[in-house]
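QA checklist item 7 of 12: single-chain prediction sanity check.
[x] sequence parsed
[x] length recorded as 320
[x] structure emitted
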Amino acid sequence: MAEMSLEKAALVEDSDLARIRHVDIDDVIDYVHRDLKKLPSYTDLYKRYLRQRWDVYDLDFTQDVIDWQQNMTQEERDSFVGISSGFHHGERQVEVELPVFMMGGSEESKIYMSSQIEDEARHTVFFDRFYREVVGLPGDSIQDVLDASFEHVSETFVGPFGLLAYQADELRQDPEDLAARVRYGTTYFLWIEGVLALSVMKITLTYCRNRGFLPGYYAGFTATCRDEARHVQGGMRFLRDAVTEDPRMLHEIHETLKTILTINGATSRRLYLEALGWEQEEVRRLMIRQLRMKLVDVGIALSPELEAMVNRIEPELAGG
């Protein structure tokens, strides 16, 4: 990947909601990877959070409603909801589960992690507003809308997030268990955020930008992607530091990835991503690239068996 220019990095870092809708999603994804080799400290990530916080209630979905009802086809709407519904539920799940991971970290990481929990809550409200005001799902409460969108969630969501729920329960028994923290961190920071979430962002936001549709969604989800830059960098710092502290943790990362990649293909229905301008093979390459970039940048090598499993990734998506 070519070095990101200082001008583009500054535009991504400093844009408010009004300006970020004009930022290209590819630049935001480049921004995610920009600091992975050096990995900022938790305090630096917290400072960045304070500068980049945004108000979900400042988003204007007026044009989005028009686009959704009048300009998008039924196939486009179905594909859009199908791929984004996992994100809706993923944000809510980690909002309530991350505190158990936070409990076992250093004081600096706890302060930073508190900001990520607030991010996840804001992202949950973002999707609640989008599904309620644009898609038109019924419900008087956030839980009602979550229930209404759940029928669109694919098995690929249930797989990694079911694994994450199991790992969170394991971690509750001893929040300072490094191996349990690494297993949770591999599933969440590396796979769910580092691969699935960024892939969903790339697909839906590229569609919005190419078609000129859903400006409110584009602004909010691009700001969400910028938040993910902090989350992925913080998570990959944790994994790198854990392996440095105890090299045996590399085995935990490998075994967790093996489990994730084994359940990756367990799906009985296929998302029709062609309606959003994406072929299945393009998505597969995107997911593989996202995973490899994270591993290479922080120096995590894979066994030949895992390399072969990575090359067989199925392009079914969920996010969080």
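[x] summary fact logged: The mean pLDDT is 88.
[ ] second reviewer sign-off
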